[in-house]
Amino acid sequence: MASRSSDPEHPSLFSLGKVGKSSGEIDDAQVPLVNGERHYDSYSVLSAVLPFLFPALGGLLYGYDIGATSCATISVESATLSGTTWYNLSSVDIGLITSGSLYGALIGSVLAFNVADFLGRRRELIVASVLYLVGALVTALAPDLVVMVIGRFVFGIGIGLAMHAAPMYIAETAPSQIRGQLISLKEFFIVLGMVAGYALGSLLVDTVSGWRYMYGASTPIAIVMGIGMWWLPASPRWLLLCAIQGKGTMQDLRETAICCLCRLRGEAIGDSAPEQVEEMLVELSYVGEEKEAGLAEMFQGKCLKALIIGGGLVLFQQITGQPSVLYYAASILELIMTGVAVVVVDRVGRRPLLLGGVSVMVISLFLLGSYYTFLDNAPVMAVVALLLYVGCYQLSFGPIGWLMISEIFPLRLRGRGLSIAVLVNFGANAIVTFSFSPLKVLKLFNHSNFAVVFSSMYYILFVNVLRALLGSGPLFFIFGGIAIISLAFIYFIVPETKGLSLEEIEAKLL
Fold first, then answer.
1. Can you tell me the distance from the alpha carbon of 447 to that of 449, in angstroms, rounded to the nearest whole number?
2. Residue by residue, what is the 3-state secondary structure of 88-109?
3. Which end of the chain is more exposed for a tag (fewer CB within 10 A), N or C?
4. Partners of residue 439 on adjacent β-strands
């Protein structure tokens, strides 16, 4: 097939970071992909909900683990309430309990790099649900610290696999019109899980062996997730990828993909499923998905562009914001702002939310820097700046970063590309959680009435050194400067993917 770049009727494909044009601008002449028409999926709301819901439970369990652990560590080291004889734990022991799941998530991310495309998205999520169940039971029933840490580690492997496979499954099965809403809603489920974990933990923290109940409470959700993923069909796009790569009989896999697409779209799809599957096959062949992905290809061509976009978003997400964000009262704000992002992401677009949200984050960081440097008698300004920062983070980097990463990688490289992004995220998370205490920006109330705690993933060693040398004010100014750089990165590098199919994103934007 001749390259479109040599066809005068089809202008050259988008060039990453082209000078003089932001990446959000796409030539209208490039909009047709294969058949010259923009295709929108027909679907019923009910049929779109379940393929989102069961994968999203993996995010809910991840968030629940974060919230519950903040209370479980208090319970397990209480002489009167732990219900154990090994309650006298050192700071290293508590660090292992807290970060054990994150180190497990690191292993899960590494495993995903090698086995994701072999297992497929659906089976990877089934394995994740089993690991969630086993990890939660082992942790809840642990007779000693060693077994408890092992349980946390197993649970964490489930987190790594779930956070890798869930956005891929949702992205590949969701109708393009609501793909952004559904993937952003998964982020909402993570925050909802954090709130639920903290709420249940607060109720059980004064109960003898309350930490066992906190961790054990996640087992029913893991069971529902596993049963749900067993019932759901495989990703049609993954089946077609296997077909064109010769990993099965083309006709059989094509028929299976048609059946799966019918189940995913419901009765609204009518008789158009075979036609849509055929379009996917043609588009996958057009963008060159026939070859199996090799490690070297991760750093070449389209995938290199996707890595720059995805890796850059994850990097700036870490060094300008706080993926674990605020605890307690601010978790409610996270929930609200993530909900706003879910509602508007497919209407407004990815780039406007990123550019608008990060712009307000820049202002907030400079206000916080000014508070610590010049205006320490104006705590109200600092509170407003802090809440604006958190709200805009959850409107921009929080949900949109992971949404873009799930969309931007070519299909045959998506599993490995996403595993690198998840690995970077959990790697930074694990190091910080184990090694450093959160930076307390403002304590508005006593602990029982909620404390506003700025728990940032970027406080690795050099940040603590900078803070010691420069003070908190200049440090916030530095982060404000980094946020400005991230704005330039978003404007010139990050494309708009609203309304495009995954195949169109690969053909037009990479």
1. 5
2. CCCHHHHHHHHHHHHHHHHHHH
3. N
4. 454
